[in-house]
Amino acid sequence: MKSNYTIEYFLENHTIFPLISPFLSYQRKQDFQQSLMIKNSLKNKKIFMDYIAKEIKYCPKCLKDDYEKYGEVYSHRLHQLYFLDYCNKHQTKLIYVCPECGVPLSNNDGKELLTRPFCKNGHSLTSNTIYLKDYPKPIKRIIQDIHFFISHSSNINKDLILERFYSELGKRGYGENYSEYIQIKRLKKDFSNYLRTLEVQQDNVIDSQFNTLLTKRSNDAPNLLAYLLLFQFISDSSEDFFSNTVGYSIDIPFKNEQQPCLNKICKYYNKRIIRTYTKRYYPVLNYSQPHHKLWI
Ligand SMILES: [Zn+2]
Ligand SMILES: [Zn+2]
User: Fold this and answer.
1) In the 8-state DSSP scheme, what is residue 109?
2) Cβ atoms within 10 A of the Cβ of 164, count?
3) Interior CA angle at 17 toward 14 and 20, to 5°?
4) Distance, CA 77 to ligand 2 centroid (Å)?
């Protein structure tokens, strides 16, 4: 069959790639796109497998809608994330076995997908749809965040994410005085308490790779759930996390023009001669006893 669809088109519209790509290093993204050219490359399969549930999941209401509209049913990409069991459109719980007889709706390798909204034993999968009054606490925001990432995927990359982390965490007192490093131990503890209030299972979020979320180090399969929950912890939502762009250090606008020298005894005083700058952090020590304050 001749088709005008490119690999990029397929990735953007039919896979969860737009959701993952903002978190990948530039090199990793390139490697991934190239590996797709090689048929059956194990490497490119792995990147999706880390995010996809073992069983194919379906929303009963989507099954019904698809069948009425197209005469067959489809598996939806956002229903397959391992950490999300709800339809983002219908507020329903996803199913992977027949609610009536418990037979799996697809086999594990995904080769046998449903084409009609009936299980192997002929039970209708659309007749007993369970609608939720509301999503569990963190889920609603995660669903919004996923949509935010999918529609802003091309504008967000790992560098921007790190820049925002350092700025927002610095504002909230997690910055080290001597450097741009983040007080990761304290952050982990506070984040862990936050997860407890959300009743989120911690092992899936704060894993052995947690520290790499905040560094430039490339990670083959960055923990998407951990990122989304960290954005929530810091800024309430991913949208807020990226829209609040006021830095905690003085932001010198060097974008297009040189800046004037502000040193009155310099012969270039008030002349636009400054092209670059570097940031330095000076230690500020607070002693709890009175009269022992330094550098205040
Ligand atoms: Zn649905
Ligand atoms: Zn059945």
Assistant:
1) T
2) 20
3) 150
4) 23
Q: Half-sphere exposure of residue 291, counting CA atoms within 13 Å on the CB side? A: 0
pLDDT tens digits for range 52-109? 888 899 999 999 999 999 999 999 999 999 989 999 889 899 999 999 999 999 876 6
Measured in Å, residue 107 CA sits from the centre of ligand 2 at: 15
Taking only the tens place, the pLDDT of each residue in 150-168 is 989 889 999 999 989 988 8
Q: What is the pTM assigned to this prediction? A: 0.75
pLDDT value of residue 202: 87
Give the SS3 label for residue 182: strand
- Ligand 2 centroid–CA 5 distance in Å is 37
Ligand nearest to the CA of 125: 2
- Residues whose Cβ atom is located within 5 A of ion ligand 1: 59, 61-62, 87, 89-90
Per-domain boundaries in the chain:
7-49, 52-133, 150-243
246 token code pair: 């006021």
What are the backbone angles phi and psi of residue 141, rounded to the nearest 5°? Answer: -70, -35
61 Cα–ligand 1 center, Å: 5
Beta-bridged to residue 92, according to DSSP, are 131
Cα of first residue to Cα of last residue in the chain, in angstroms, is 73
